[in-house]
């Protein structure tokens, strides 16, 4: 792995564990097995390194959505493709959930225009799906950001709560820790139902029927 990528991986773990303020470039360099000077060579400073991680995650997610969502597919399937693309990105970046939730709790002070642009690209992918669904008469007009929050929120919470869920499952086996595959059908069902304006019963029937066709 190239030195730049090693720094990004090490920094994501450090920022997730300690937040931006508590993270130390010395620890990041040590985890990456590199001299601290390499951080300044590749990223100028700690803030630039932090923002590159944020922008990189959303850039990768936007690219995944663009690659995996098929505009010619039924719109319900496009929603599922969007959800699965986001879920795969999250699964491949285990430290991002804690890092992102810390950033939001701090008021998003490090979300600069380049990060916002990559976030906009992800949202634009979902907006396109919704627009196509409205055109076909399958979806009702909704705020895309609200739909995206219903998709991303549970995925992030599942990842960030892993240590607590593991402790709970050891306390009571009835609460065995669930995985991402257990969560995704609920997210898909909720998103499709909200877009279609269905009741809970109709949502479940429509979503499960759609899944049986894919």
Written overview of the protein:
- The protein is mostly helical and 214 residues long.
- It is 78% helix and 0% strand.
- It folds into 2 domains: 44 residues, Homeodomain-like (Arc Repressor Mutant, subunit A, Orthogonal Bundle), CATH 1.10.10; 160 residues, Tetracycline Repressor, domain 2 (Orthogonal Bundle), CATH 1.10.357.10.
- The protein is globular, with a radius of gyration of 19 Å.
Topology, please?
Layout: H1 3-22, H2 25-32, H3 37-43, H4 46-68, H5 75-91, H6 96-105, H7 113-136, H8 144-160, H9 162-171, H10 180-196, H11 200-213
Helix pairs in contact: 1-2, 1-4, 1-6, 3-4, 4-5, 4-7, 5-7, 5-8, 5-10, 6-8, 7-8, 8-10, 10-11
CATH superfamily of the largest domain: Tetracycline Repressor, domain 2
List the uncertain runs. 199-204
The CATH architecture of the largest domain is Orthogonal Bundle
Structural class: mainly alpha
Assembly of the depicted chains: single chain
Beta strand %: under 5%
Give me the strand/helix succession: HHHHHHHHHHH
Major β-sheet, in short? none
* Count of domains: 2
Shape: globular
Helix residue percentage? over 70%
Beta strands, count: 0
Estimated radius of gyration:
19 Å
CATH topology of the largest domain: Tetracycline Repressor, domain 2
Number of helices in the DSSP assignment: 11
End-to-end distance: 37 Å
Structural descriptors:
214 residues; Arc Repressor Mutant, subunit A; Tetracycline Repressor, domain 2; 2 domains; 78% helix
What's the short version?
By secondary structure, the protein is mainly α. The protein contains 11 helices and no strands.
């Amino acid at each position: 792995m190239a030195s730049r990528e090693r720094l990004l991986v090490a920094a994501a773990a450090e920022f997730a564990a300690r937040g931006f303020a508590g993270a130390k470039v010395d620890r990041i360099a040590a985890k990456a097995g590199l001299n601290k000077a390499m951080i300044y060579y590749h990223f100028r400073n700690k803030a630039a390194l932090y923002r590159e991680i944020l922008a990189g995650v959303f850039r990768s997610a936007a690219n995944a959505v663009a690659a995996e969502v098929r505009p010619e597919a039924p719109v319900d399937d496009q929603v599922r493709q969007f959800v699965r693309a986001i879920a795969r990105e999250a699964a491949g970046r285990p430290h991002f959930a804690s890092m992102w939730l810390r950033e939001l709790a701090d008021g998003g002070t490090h979300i600069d225009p380049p990060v916002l642009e990559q976030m906009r690209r992800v949202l634009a992918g979902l907006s396109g799906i919704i627009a196509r669904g409205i055109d076909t008469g399958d979806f009702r007009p909704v705020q895309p950001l609200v739909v995206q929050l219903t998709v991303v929120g549970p995925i992030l919470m599942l990842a960030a709560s892993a240590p607590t869920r593991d402790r709970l499952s050891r306390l009571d086996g009835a609460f065995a820790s669930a995985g991402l595959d257990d969560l995704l059908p609920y997210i898909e069902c909720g998103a499709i139902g909200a877009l279609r304006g269905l009741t809970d019963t109709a949502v479940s029937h429509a979503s499960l029927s759609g899944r049986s066709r894919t």
